Amino acid sequence: MQFLFAPLWGRLSDRYGRRPLLIVGLVGSAGSYLVFAFAGTVEVLLLSRIVGGLTGATIPVAQAYVADSSPRESRARAMGLIGAAFGIGFIIGPALGGFMSRWGYALPGVFASGLSLLAALVAVAFLPESLPAQQRRRLAAPAAGAKAAGAQVRALARTLGDARFRGPIGATLLANTGFAAYTTIFPLFLDEPIGMTATEAGAFFALSGLVSVTTQGGIVGRVVDRIGEKHTALMGLVAVFGAFLILPSWPQTRGILLSLSFLGLGWGLFNPALLGILSGRADETDQGSVLGVNQSASALARVLGPLAGGWAFGALGYALSFQLSALLLAAAALWLSTLAGLPTPGAPSEATDR
Hints:
The protein is mainly alpha-helical. It has one domain (2-129, 163-338): MFS general substrate transporter like domains (Growth Hormone, Chain: A). The protein has 13 helices and no strands. Helix 9 (198-227) packs across helix 11 (253-281).
């Protein structure tokens, strides 16, 4: 659902502003968690995830809000802060959910719904609009049915057909596919051959999250200031590549700790720097649309990666599975290394068609 709807949310935010779209998304997420809490059948559970994916596809709107509020030269640092906020949530959320599940599986869903609704109320009361009316795209009124689908396809084609965006979005697709494959294989690897419990595995994942939060919240901005966004993103990919190769060669506790540390560091460098590159190449009126297509590529990777990783683990074993995931990171780094310098927004040239 995020693959399908992230570009649409981003495009609508370019027309109507970021604030109303964020509020609608938060209210919708609150509803999806409430459905989840009281789902009595698999079909209702599936419905909750459909609604959650649709309304949770506002991530590019939040990224566009950050881009609106930041000068171009500091956007990687700003994207790092929003990434750190996500990381903190992914550390605290599972712990809270696991604790509250002692009183039934409905309670975590109700609590999550309340948090989303609280966030929506805070946004209504305190969140200013980041995109001035004079900077909004003059898009045609939203269509419905087949016309809406056609408009969506044309918007995707325009973004992917622009030489400024193909490289960064391609790197996002490759890197996230490898990352999703790794995170699918990793818990299977901890179970067999390592024999680790679920509680221990959760603690290991939390370590990676802590490293990533620290990197995105305090380190990535300094690294970008020193070596630039492109080289920061490449450094991150190299670190993640190393994380993927450490496990098959050192399948022990120390190897796992080192791999997860490299993973948190590398992803904490790559993702904000890549978003900074992409945002810097977009016009001010196109931030939501471009970041939406990038989020769609990331969502597609989270579909392809688990399928490929799960198959590889079962058919080839854990060593080859991690190595194949590493090859995707190498391909992303190679693709990213060919990018030319930052072009002037709105004026793509032959030099950017790399």
